[in-house]
Amino acid sequence: MADNTARPADDAVGAAEAEDAPGPSEQARIAELVETLAREAAENKDKLLRTLAEMENLRRRTEREIGDARQYAIAAFARDVVAVADNMGRALDAVSSELRATADPGAQALIEGVELTERELLKALEKNGVRKFEPLGEKFDPNVHQAMFEVPDPSLPAGSVAQVVQPGYMIGDRVLRPALVSVAKGGPKAAAPASSANDNADAAREPDSAD
User: In three state form, how does the secondary structure of the chain look?
Assistant: First the structure.
């Protein structure tokens, strides 16, 4: 009798569990929802990584632009200053060694003062990233040199700088002012020795021994 009274209760519990268990359509909907959430999470992660990369690139670009602004802000002022250095250099080049040797103490002091001022001016330019260069003997580079004329000099390779008319200046890794130079054409090719040429001509006129 006890078993007969308990059986209806067990059947009722089993029926309730059967009702609570998701059916095939409910399971498919849950799986689709999980897949959608996983895809959205992956897309959001990709967007986050792209945003972080763009922010890092922006930070680096901003730092570079700030550094360039600090380094090249004096470019216009530096061009005016190097013109003063040019004038000092021309003044000193005009003083010959004989004039230096025979100059009175006052003139000697003036020459030395100009030399000292030129050195201090170039030192101040270098301290601010402006560097003087004189490419004598180097291969001509149109990026940093400006050719004024050509010089037929057989002692120099063709295309090399034969003379520096005016020195150039760099500011950082940029050209502040190109160097004005003359470019060597290079000497003509050496002619064949006359004796060798005559020997070759005689050999060409000799009859073949087989004849």
Answer: CHHHHHHHHHHHHHHHHHHHCCCHHHHHHHHHHHHHHHHHHHHHHHHHHHHHHHHHHHHHHHHHHHHHHHHHCCHHHHHHHHHHHHHHHHHHHCCCHHHHHHCCHHHHHHHHHHHHHHHHHHHHHHHCCEEEECCCCCECCCCCEEEEEEECCCCCCCCEEEEEEECEEEECCEEEECEEEEEECCCCCCCCCHHHHHHHHHHHHCCCCCC
- pTM for the whole structure: 0.58
Q: How far apart are the first and last CA of the chain?
A: 144
Place of tokens 């087989």: 210
Q: For residue 186, how far is the Cα from the chain centroid?
A: 31
Residue-range domains of the chain with CATH:
131-190 (2.30.22.10)
pLDDT digits (tens, 9 = 90+) for 45-87: 999 999 999 999 988 888 888 877 777 888 889 999 999 999 9
Burial 169-178 (b: 16+ CB within 10 A, else e): bbbeeebbbb
User: Which residue would you say has higher pLDDT here, 200 or 142?
Assistant: 142
Bridge partners (DSSP) listed for residue 146: 180
Torsion sign over Cα 151, 155, 156, 162:
negative
- Pairing of β 168-171 and β 130-133: antiparallel
